[in-house]
Structure formats: C-alpha cells, structure tokens
Amino acid sequence: MGPLAILVCFSCPILVLGLLAFLNKTLRKPILRQREFNARGIRGPPYKFLFGNAREIQKMKTAAAAKPMSNLSHEIRTRLEPHLATWTEAYGKNFVFWMGPEPILVVTEPELVKVVGNNAEKVYQKLEAEGYIKKLFGDGLVTSRGEKWAKMRKLVNHAFQGDSLKSMVPAMVASTEVMLQRWEDHGGEEIEVFEEFSLFTAEVISRTAFGSSYFQGKLVFDGLAKLLQLATKHALNIQIPGLSLTCSKVYKPKDEIEAEKLEQQIRDVIIAMVTKREEMVTNGDLDSCGSDFLGLLVKARYEDDESKRISVDNVVDECKTFYLAGHETCDILLTWAMLLLSIHTDWQEEARKEVMTHFGNKTPDADGIMKLKTVRN
Predict the structure, then answer these.
(1) Could you read off the pLDDT of 177-233 as tens digits, one per residue?
(2) What is the C-alpha separation between 130 and 42, in angstroms, rounded?
(3) How far apart are CA 50 and CA 247, in angstroms?
(4) pLDDT over threshold 90, residue 121
(5) Which residue in 220, 216, 211 sits closest to 171, CA to CA?
(6) d(C-alpha 347, C-alpha 343), whole Å
(7) 253: number of Cβ within 10 Å
(8) CB–CB of 210/217 below 8 Å?
(9) How far apart are CA 297 and CA 159, in angstroms?
C-alpha cells in the first residue's frame, strides 16, 4: 500500500468524525434543545441550520432603521430591537431565539427578572467574551465573572463614594463653563448637542477619573469608538464551530487586523498614563497614587495582600471599561434629556427656576446640587 493510500485511510475516519462532531454541534444539539424548551412551555422562532435567527434579526433591524421616525417617543424598542418586540408579541414575555447553534433565552417577566438579577444560587453566569467584544472590554468588570468580578467591583466602588464624587464637582463645573462659552461663541447658530456632550463627557472623565489631559483621553475615546463600531458591525456574525478558529489562524480579515491595532494603541496610551502616575509618586510630585479611579487601580497593583493585588492587564481592562461605559451612557443621557426639555418647555422652565433659586449667579457646588429636586428627578 502506497503512502497516498495510507494517508487516505487515516484521513477518512478523521474527516468523518469531524463532520459528525460538526453536525452534532450545529444540528442535533440545537434541535434537541428546542424540543426541551418547547416541553417547558418556552417557545420562540424555529432554529435554522448554522446561522440560527441571525439573518432574520439583521433583516428586521435593516427594515426598522429604513423607516423614518414619525413621532418622538420613549417607545423606541421597535426601532432598535425590532426582533425582540416582534417575538415578545408572538411568543410571550419569555422566549428563546438562536444565535448560530447557541440559544438565547429572553426573560421579561418582572418576577423572573428579579430572580435572575439576584442570582442567589449563583447559577446564572455571564457569557464568555469573545472576538471584538473581548478586545473592547478585555476582562474588565463588564465581562469578568466569579471572584475576580467581586474583587474588581469592590475596588471600583470606592471611586464612587460620596466624598469622591463631591471632589469631582469643581472639575465638572469647569468643563461645563468651557462648553457653555463655546456655545455662546456660536452666535446663535445651530449646535450639534450630541457631539458637544460627547466632547464634554470625554473631558470630564479624563480630568476627574484619570487626571489626564483631554488629548490623552481623546486617543482612548477615539480608539474605543472605532472598536465599538467594529464590534457592532460584526455583532450578528456567526462563528462556525471549528472552522472559524482554523480560518482565523490562516487568514485574518481587514477588520480584525484593524481591531488588534486599535487594541494595542489603546493599551499603550493607558500604560503611559499609569507609568506617569507611578513616576510622579516616585519623584515626590504626589504623596500617593491619588484618590481618583486611576489612582485606586495603580495603588491596587502594589497591595501587600496578594488576594487584593491586581495585574497591569486588570488596570488596562478596567480603564477601558470605565472610559467606554462612562462616556457612552452620560453622552446619550444628556442628549436625550436636552431633547425632552426642548419638547416639554414647562419642565424646562421649572428646572431653570429651581436652579436660579438655589444658585442665582453663583457657581454650583455639590451640596447645592443635592438640594435640587426637579433637576435630580
């Protein structure tokens, strides 16, 4: 028997076993799981080989985005998540759909949501971050699990205690004054408030949480924004078990190469910030690492108690998480609040009256802000 015949004899069983494993993962298991869900009274759109419901979701999102918004309303789920709105109506408050061969259980019934949120039995675990999401958040608070999550959450909480937040107010006020002056300089011309608030929140976070210049913060924000775009673009891409991993080792798509470059650039900037803070302490320019978010992370790197110590990778991942989560949420919240105030002018007048009553022409401070009822609610 020649070498080629021997190779074929050995290869055929391996290929057959590989094919069976592939079909088991992408066909047999999903069908069995769907039957089990149905038996428990949990219905949903039927599983479709290999891609699940990913293509349906993409079609629904594309169709929803193509329709103009006829009115301004808080009910935007049908536009942003049309598949969830459609399937909730069709299958009830709790249902299952498929991303590739993996089932996604959607729970909207309040009592069940409470059970999952409390997670008293520790049976509900976060999905393991992969691909672009892993590059975006690393193994930070959003994606970490178990003891590591508990340790990082306890550490991060110190940055948001009352005294810490109060100390940030002067920097926030200073950034606000700069933004308002910029608005006055527009001379009554139209202002893109979303972009303005994006700039404002980036500056506030850079100053208060990292003690860095806006330029350094901008490098991180811009890199994360591009990474987020890539992650969103590929959110519905299905990884074919076994095949995707093999292909990625042989050929990397342009977006994946770009994501790796961005990830490294962001890491380099954050490491530079950490190094600068450490040097300032070493040279005597600072008495300690500082009480801001970056300072707490740097201090934790050198904890005597090994169980509380964190690595430089932890520092980078938590910084990325804070930059991204703090920036996006505040930016969108401020823009939406401004839109609502422009629509509901009575509330606008009420809020303005309250601010003028408490502060007049004085600069707002933490204690005064706490007394505002209309604005805070």
Answers:
(1) 989 999 999 888 889 999 999 989 988 998 888 887 677 788 888 999 999 999 988
(2) 27
(3) 17
(4) no
(5) 211
(6) 9
(7) 12
(8) yes
(9) 10
How long a stretch of residues is the chain? Answer: 377
DSSP 305-331: SGGG---HHHHHHHHHHHHHHHHHHHH
Tokens of 86: 């459609």
Strand ranges, E, within the chain: 94-99, 102-107
Percent of the chain that is helix, strand, coil (3-state, to 5): 70, 5, 30
Residue listed under structure tokens 């401004």: 338
262, 265, 271, 274: CA torsion to nearest 10 = -90
CA neighbours closer than 13 Å in the CB half-sphere of residue 245: 3
Q: Residue 204's closest CA among 164, 244, 235, 176?
A: 176
Per the listing, tokens 């959003």 go with: 142
Tens of pLDDT along 250-306? 668 899 999 999 999 999 999 999 998 888 888 877 777 877 889 889 989 988 888
* pTM for this prediction: 0.81
Which ranges of 67-138 would DSSP assign to H, the alpha helix? 77-80, 82-91, 110-118, 131-137
Interatomic CA distance for residues 206 and 174, integer angstroms: 13
Interatomic CA distance for residues 125 and 127, integer angstroms: 6
Look up residue 3 and give its amino acid: P
